[in-house]
Amino acid sequence: MMDLLADPDMAQCIMRHLADTFITRFDRFYAAIGPYIQIVNVNDDLGTQAGPQLSPELYRKMVKPYQQKVYRHIKQHPGLFLFLHTDGAVRDLIPDFMEMGVDILNPVQFTCARMDLKELKAEFGRDIAFWGGGCDTQTILPTASPARVKEHVKTCLDILMPGGGFVFNQLHNIQPDVPPENIMAMYEAVHEHGLY
Questions:
Q1: Which residues sit opposite 166 in a β-bridge?
Q2: Do residues 90 and 185 both lie within one domain?
Q3: Containing H/E element for 59?
Q4: Can you tell me whether residue 129 is helix, strand or coil?
């Protein structure tokens, strides 16, 4: 992270090699199982609770060109959907993701700054699918009552489902401190309210 500013040549060398390695690995997988692939998942945690890890300007200058190289290579293969996992407050970067060919955003961490579900759905919901945003795993799932979990999930579904472009998933991994009855309440709410 520091090399992005302190030693940009080194940072770019590393990212160039990472991008080339990812492309080589993708090509090997695609040669072996291409007809069976529908979605390609790439992971880049670009956000924190408060905002992007990098300023949008630094991201666009130093990171985006290498992501774009990888993403465009993937999208050259017909019929593939590009799924980007990135935690945190990344609203300012979503237009960049779409420009590079990202079809699916995960986990839609709406508990972070400027990640309001209603606003995200209104602004980007026609152009990118949300694979997540179905339940807050930081505060609701571990601490709320099962009834409150169901109510919360229904609210999220009511926002994200209209018009399609939504696949239910909670905000992040379910941690060991989550009561099993809350996990069941979450999935019961999806079965009761989340079917198209």
A1: 130
A2: no
A3: none
A4: strand
Phi, psi of 90 (to 5 degrees): -115, 15
Asked if pLDDT for residue 196 goes beyond 90, the answer is: no
Same-domain status, 154 and 71: no
Q: Which amino acid is at 23?
A: I
Q: How many domains does the chain have?
A: 2
Q: State yes or no: cis peptide before 107, omega within 30 of 0.
A: yes
Tens of pLDDT, residue by residue over 88-144, are 999 999 999 999 999 999 999 999 999 999 999 999 999 999 999 999 999 999 999
Would you state the structure tokens that stand for residue 118, as one six-digit string? 């209603």
Q: Which tokens sit at 33?
A: 């199982």
Secondary structure (DSSP) of 90-111: -GGGHHHHHHTT--EEE---TT
Assigned token pair, 148: 């409150």
Q: Residues 135, 139, 143, 145: what is their CA dihedral angle, to the nearest 10 degrees?
A: -40
Residues whose CB falls within 8 Å of the CB of residue 164, separated by 6 or more in sequence, listed in order: 196
